[in-house]
Amino acid sequence: MRLDEGDIMTGLIIAGVDGSAPSDAAVEWAADDALRAGAELRIVHVVDRRPYDITRFPVSDQEDHLRKAAGKVLEAAEAIARVRQPTVEVSTRSIEGVPSAVLREQEASELVIGNRGVGGFVGALLGSVTMEVAAQAGCPVVVVRAEQREKRGEIGVGVDDSDTCEPALGYAFEQARQRGATLRLIHAWQVPVHAFAPEVSYDLGEVRAAQREVVRKRIAAWRARYPEVNLAEDVQNAHPVDALTSTTCDLIVVGSHGRGALGSLFLGSVSRGVLHHARCPVAVVRSQEFVGGP
Ligand SMILES: Nc1ncnc2c1ncn2[C@@H]1O[C@H](COP(=O)(O)OP(=O)(O)O)[C@@H](O)[C@H]1O
Ligand SMILES: [Mg+2]
């Protein structure tokens, strides 16, 4: 986004860093997004003392070691942000505590973290900090992977037939507007499978038309509010995780929970599946207990 004279900074984007490659990628993504949104960037490293709580080591030595390590992680991350977006306002902070708890409690307009960190085992797709922060933070959480991909000029959002996707839609429309990207409205539907009543049949043409109507109704108010955003309707007879991860987008936006799981400590199964299988950044936007659109 271009900042006009007189524009004020709005928002605080926080990138959580631990020195890993995915966390470096998160810093770059966060710096780009801070520029687009006209927001400030804060880089946070949480110093977790639990693994070092061993009394036979002299405490002052550990303190010094941990402080130095945290300083190095923050310094490296800050350098990445400044090289990437020299005009974005950047600050760093080192905070003591349990990483997932500290991060999800930050007051930010957005949290950006890697899909993995320095502590994961080979083959793990998602770290524990990633999962907990994505499920429990009050603000949108963007999960970034280390592998960079070519820009497509398109972002995708999952649309379902409940109000729980409203905050995700709001986030997605705003991202599309700021990027001048096409917004792909992805709605997957499946007919119920009756293992014991195979004679139950459906008119697929009718179901398809009804599902398209679901999307139109759901996004009508957003379309009116963001007339400049170019939309692509993508209604598929598929599993939602397949539908959301099979198209190549620059960003996939999903709600944190589906219908009926509000207030849960866990992510909904679609959000979790998308986080596991996506090859691009994923924004998980908290589903709020509210009804209504823009
Ligand atoms: N101590 C920390 N301070 C700040 N951010 C962290 C910290 N640990 C992890 N993160 C963030 O969470 C992401 C995922 O890390 P994590 O869930 O710990 O994965 P792993 O289990 O592979 O270490 C990291 O890329 C980083 O963005
Ligand atoms: Mg870790």
Automatic annotation (TrEMBL):
Name the record gives this protein: Universal stress protein
What family is reported? Belongs to the universal stress protein A family.
Domain spans labelled UspA: 13-145, 155-286
InterPro entries from the xrefs?
Rossmann-like_a/b/a_fold, Universal_stress_UspA, UspA
> What Gene3D superfamilies does the database record attribute to this sequence?
HUPs
Q: Which domain of life is it from?
A: Bacteria
